[in-house]
Amino acid sequence: MDTGINKDKIRTHYDADQDIFYLLFTEKAQKALAEEADDEVFVRFDQDTRKVISVEFLNFQERLINIFGKEMKYLGSEQPERLFLPKLQDNW
Known about the structure:
- There is one protein chain.
- By secondary structure, this protein is mostly beta strands.
- It has one domain.
- The chain is built from one helix and seven strands; from the N terminus they run βββββαββ.
- The protein has one helix at about 60-70; strands at about 10-15, 20-25, 35-40, 40-45, 50-60, 75, 85.
- The chain has a five-stranded antiparallel beta sheet, with no helix packed on it. Strands 6-7 form a two-stranded antiparallel sheet.
- The N and C termini lie far apart (about 35 Å).
């Protein structure tokens, strides 16, 4: 399936107040339909082209804890792809 995702244009955003992590695949906001792809994971896409606009992960902190344990923390820094793992930090 052609998702139309330009891997060079992927951006991320974390809304700490709402605890939502966004993967954004377009330069600017645009109208889109949303479907729940999994529990509290929504894929937004262009209705005409079916290209993915964004993926939204609700309750992001809880997801991290469930997957990696309580040591995992999302820093929300300028490099949102970076995660802090206290036990692994010495090995880097």
